Amino acid sequence: MIQKENKLKLISINIEHSKHTERVKAFLEDEKPDIVCILELCEKDIQMYEVLLGTQSFFKRVNKGTMEKDGHEDYVGNAIFAKNFIVINHHYYYGSESKVGPYISSPDIRTYRNNSQLPLLWADIQHNGVTYRIATTHLTWTMSGESAAFQLEDVENMLAISGTLDEHVLVGDFNAPRGRETFSRIVARYKDNIPLEYKTSIDQNLHRVKGLQYMVDGLFTTPGYVANDVHLVDGVSDHMAIVATIVKI
């Protein structure tokens, strides 16, 4: 029997910069997670979320852009928020931290990538005396979720890195709709824990493009972990939030 203490409440969410801050804050205050992985986080907001969650953070930059809400420029990236970090690490599977700069869109995203630099972050986190390894990323964006050649190259590079991490949980926004080639390469290595009843993780009201049916946000596990009570929550950001209870076997 699994002890009650061997449970970790995990949330993963793409928050679309600072566009939905009040919704995100209210959601996190209500859910009271043990660990949160945030994608598209403005660097200036890190401390605010640390205070809100009562945690530390581990953040890596992806690009720099002008925020829609107030027009300021800021670095944007991915972060893990948790109370007890034991080990933190990362690796850029495309580009490098030194190349992070102002966002430049692609002239033809079906053929050429944008200039976002792509890190995989991971951390060993202690919770109730148990050490969990959590990894997160925001995989390469393509126009219509197609498995472009550059996205397939990136996912293979990402998987080569994650394949060295031993047992872990991998969450994030993978820009790879369930059922397509990029997604298939991920699930060849991991268990997909998003229930099949969910056909999209795009919020149908808050996303700027209406009607998108792409299941792109993921919660994947290696055999050493079990994800229970996995569900998606809308009304938080342009992507639905993933909420789950993680158990280490």
List the main descriptive attributes of the protein structure presented here.
249 residues; alpha+beta; Deoxyribonuclease I, Chain A; 4 helices; globular
Structure description:
- The chain has 249 residues and is α+β, with helices and mostly antiparallel strands.
- The protein has a single domain (8-248), classed as Deoxyribonuclease I, Chain A (4-Layer Sandwich), CATH 3.60.10.10.
- 16% of the residues lie in helices and 38% in strands.
- The protein is built from four helices and twelve strands, in the order βαβαβββββαβαββββ.
- The protein has helices spanning 21-31, 46-53, 149-162, 181-187; strands at residues 8-14, 35-42, 56-66, 73-82, 85-94, 118-127, 130-138, 169-173, 191-192, 217-221, 225-233, 241-248.
- The strands form two sheets. It has a six-stranded mixed β-sheet with strand order 3-4-2-1-12-11, with helices on one face.
- A hairpin with a 6-residue loop joins strand 3 (56-66) and strand 4.
- Helix 3 (149-162) runs parallel beside helix 4 (181-187).
- The radius of gyration is 17 Å and the shape is globular.
- The termini are close together.
- The mean pLDDT is 95.
